[in-house]
Amino acid sequence: MTKKLKKRIRRVLIGAVCYFAAVLWDKLLLASSIIIPVPAVIAELFLRNAVPNLHDMIRFAAFLTAYIVIGGDVVKNAVKNIGHGQVFDENFLMMIATVGAFFVGDYPEAVAVMLFYQVGECFQSYAVNKSRKSIAALMDIRPDYANVLRDGEEKEVDPDEVAIGETIVLKPGERIPLDGTILTGNSALDTMALTGESMPRDVSAGDEVISGCINLSGVLEVKVSREFGQSTVAKILDLVENASSKKAESENFITKFAKYYTPIVVFCALALAIVPPLILSGGWSTWIYRALTFLVISCPCALVISIPLSFFGGLGGSSKAGILIKGSNYLEALADAQIVVMDKTGTLTKGSFAVVKILAEEGVNEKELLELSAYAESYSTHPISQSLVKAYQDAGNEVIKERLGTVEEIAGHGVKAVVDGVTVLAGNEKLMKKEGISIGTKWKEDALTGTLVHVAKDGGYLGAVVIADEMKPDAQAAVAGMKAMGIKQIVMLTGDRKEVAEHVAEKLGITTVYAELLPGDKVDRVEELFGQKSEKGKLIFVGDGINDAPVLARADIGIAMGGLGSDAAIEAADVVIMTDEPSKIAKAMKISVKTLRIVKENIVFAIGVKVLVLLLAALGMANMWAAVFADVGVAVIAILNAMRALQTDQL
User: Fold this and answer.
1) pTM over 0.70
2) The domain 328-348+472-573 is classified under which CATH number: 3.40.50.1240, 3.40.50.300, 3.40.50.1000, 3.30.300.30?
3) Is the pLDDT of residue 511 over 70?
4) Which of 264-273, 284-293, 493-502, 543-552 has the lowest mean pLDDT?
5) Among residues of the chain, what percentage have pLDDT more than 90?
6) Which one of 343, 469, 548, 580 is the catalytic residue?
7) How far is CA 255 from the centre of its chain?
8) Would residue 343 show up in a list of annotated catalytic residues for this protein?
9) Helix, strand, or coil here: 232?
10) Which SS3 state, helix, strand or coil, does residue 417 take?
């Protein structure tokens, strides 16, 4: 709970005690004249002669004390704002209404209106505080220090003082202060603050780590790859701090609405206080009371508070789910999405090669085929070569260097290696032709969906290993989820071969595919797609690579995949999916739809109740207590409704 909220609650509690004490005093004076009439009459006569109107003075002083304790800050803010030229705000309305009630002698009602207004403000502060918690949790990822190795000694310094290339030491329980690569050590990292995922991530030497994560177990030495100002944690904190500054259209509408609405109702109240008595030649106190009631009812705080709070709740709920939305305007725009354009590699697929199939010739053992290809490629750093070695190791095997003889890499073709004294060829179709080896046609169909590594031993063809970029586990669910959200068209763009792209699209249920594109071509395709949506509809582009940055910036809403994705993509995007799950795109849309539904509910409810009670007040059918409900009651209900935007777990 913030200091400001604690101070406000303390003021309300003290003020409430003063108010109820004044009410009790008022009631006791009345009761004493009934229960013990003779002493009361004698006391009254004596005091009246000694101090005229003492009873009224004490009553006024008691309620004025309660009023100052409860509403002193409201009056102070109203006067201060008037001095700055900001006359027509909610502080001004509450001050005029309650001070006016004092002048017409309605002390208890004046204090009660201010008390319940402050109770409503406490609810607002509590709601905002609760909404901030999800985002504030992200603010806690800022590291306080870094343990840097200098001259063989470990020194604790500010993260800003660590240079690229220096080595930092991470102990169990410490937060990673800077991005880098692990030099020594094994550990598990808690990435929940960044990704929303509760499952720890195992890391070891050679792995990259990002700032903001918590080291859970082992001691790590990390070589720093980025300065603190350019680190992942710094970029995320910047996104969070600036998120609430970009307002949605609904918020801007309410701000403009309140700007014109408030002076209008003030002049209406003034007319209500003056015109009827002039026409009817009297009844000033009655009409002034109605005008003051009218003012209390007209206070637009339910709208001014609950609408931004709803969007803030949506932003907080999405960040809790591992989705960073850079502003309320983008949260609102997600609900109007019509076309989603997605990059393939790194977005729908993992962006890393893996063995997906082994095509062994008749009489050839699949294990032997994978084994020979892994040995032949074991010294190459090419991603395809590494995927062969990884598949072999994942099967529980180990590459023993003593089994490998000479290795000759043939540029653009593959590798010729001696394994256990036999000559092994591993490479593409051109290598087989060059060596005069017939490969048949068994593999033709699989060549359309991936890259083939043909393998031969001592001039005899053994078969091929199919290597492809694997689809992400939730890619199909992501496409299905977006269709369920009413997306009219899902398009896939890729620089990959047409056959591979169409194969992936078919598996995912995407009908529109553009393949073999350069970065500039992607922008052109997005420009063409803009013409296919309605004026209100929005176009989303989802990507993760540096070559996607121009398209992310051009789209109505750019979504960057993964907190470990390209910096350029994250900076150009409007939404960042911190996890590597494309299914979170549909979840972001659901959060947007829910938030907007809550906003509309609050607008309709607040305006509807206020218009009804305003009419009743003008006709003399609503008193100050009805005004309290129409103002504070409606605000509290709207605030509680707005807090529902935080609940995103079940979406």
Assistant:
1) no
2) 3.40.50.1000
3) yes
4) 543-552
5) 14
6) 343
7) 23
8) yes
9) helix
10) strand
